[in-house]
Amino acid sequence: MKKITSCICMMVLAVMALASTAQAGERAGAFSISPFVGGYVFDDNDQAWFRQNRPLGGLRLGYDFTDHFAAELVGTYMKGEYKATEHNVGVYSYRLDLLYNILADSPIVPYLAFGGGGTTIRQRGPNSHDGTVDAGGGVKFFMTDDFALRADARHIVDFQSNHLSRDHARNWEYSLGLSWLFGGRERAAAPAKAAAAPAEQPAAVTPAPAPEPPLEVPAAEPMPGHYKYCITLQGEFDIDKAVIRPEYKDEIAQVGNFMKKYPTTTAVIEGHTDNVGSYNHNMDLSQRRAEAVVNYLVEQYGIERSRLSAKGYGFTRPIADNATDEGKQKNRRIEAVIDCAFDVQQVTPPERLCMSLVLDFDPGKAEVKPQYRNEIAKVADYMKRYNTTTAVIEGHTDNTGSPDQNMKLSQQRAQNVVNYLVDNFGIERSRLSAKGYGATRRISYNNTPEGRQKNRRINAVIDCVVTK
């Protein structure tokens, strides 16, 4: 046992030396490999011929079906020693365990285990084969997203004959090991690593431009000639559930009735959460809740499924501070982003409207040309008709020039559109604000003139005061 204890201590020190802050625990779809060492205590009544406490080693191969449920194939080996003769025999065990992870999204994951299998004792004569069942539990201490220190304990019932109630031994197994996870859903830390700035190159070297990452256009981004109505459905789900509460269904009725009235519309149902729990868990939860709303619209309002899509954003798009309960409540929301291809003046949006203004600026300039008066008039006319509305004018550029220059240019262009609305249409300045995004929110690739033209745009996001 001194060797076992020394090995365990060395393992703990090695893990602590490699430790860093873990983001989360188990994750669905991950495979795991878990070597371990420990001890085995034989029943001092029904297997009294063996020395009780023997060192063992083994390996577990696991798979996480969900964040909470997993299965493992377990194999162990030890040398059993007969007390009378001090003769050693090889003892092999093999079993299948089912695990339930109690706090799956925590760096410390306690779990329960239950399973069954068999034990083979290799002797000079015929080998002995016993059936076993086991129950117990353990805990994993995640040092990184993919690496954990693990402690286990099992109560193992060894059936030594067909007389299950008579000839059985009650043994114990305890172990300490390591666990590596592979695959499964990505962690929140992955985008941060991808965003790390490359090392500055010497002035004489001109590195080839890196390929642009895949596009993920926000659902609320309008296309020219279309408008986006954003209806925020405030309502709570039960903790860790995606079942729509009855009192929440009147909120969804706004979307169902709107889309029935205007059959050419389509919608993206967005799910959002607060920041309680892991990134992966919240992404999955927000997706399931968005899909639940889509299914409800199809089943209860007869909306064609081809007109609807669901997108879960987890806690990546908060609209309030998660440091307070009130902020968390605002972030737990569903948003219906409805695409409309008809005249916006004929419809009163329930909450928020986003329209794209087709304006062309001279390269590096921010002056608004007179020929775009009618385009800007769409925003002015709407804000005059609904005089409780406010608007954010968003400026966007392509990636030509430096990031700082593009950010300043987009801010100035947005500000000039605000000034144009004030000076030419009499909209109160207190109802308007300007925000420049530079090239950070592209809707097309910048490797073609057409793509860059699409990215050079102005959006007007209009918030409407709703009377309920």
TrEMBL record:
Domain OmpA-like, chain residue ranges per copy = 224-342, 348-466
CDD domains found in the cross-reference section: OmpA_C-like
Alphabetized UniProt keyword annotations: Cell outer membrane, Ion transport, Membrane, Porin, Signal, Transmembrane, Transmembrane beta strand, Transport
Q: How does it sit in the membrane?
A: Multi-pass membrane protein
Does Transmembrane appear among the keywords?
yes
One cellular-component annotation, GO: cell outer membrane
In the UniProt record, the signal sequence range is 1-24
Q: Which domain of life is it from?
A: Bacteria
Report the GO molecular function annotations. Answer: porin activity
GO BP, one annotated term: monoatomic ion transport
Which Pfam family is one of this chain's hits? OMP_b-brl
| Subcellular localization | Cell outer membrane
What InterPro entries would the database entry show? Bact_OuterMem_StrucFunc (IPR050330), Beta-barrel_OMP (IPR027385), OMP/PagP_B-barrel (IPR011250), OMP_bac (IPR006664), OmpA-like (IPR006665), OmpA-like_sf (IPR036737)
Q: Which Gene3D superfamilies match?
A: 2.40.160.20, OmpA-like domain
Protein name, entry field: Outer membrane protein and related peptidoglycan-associated (Lipo)proteins
Natural source organism = Citrifermentans bremense
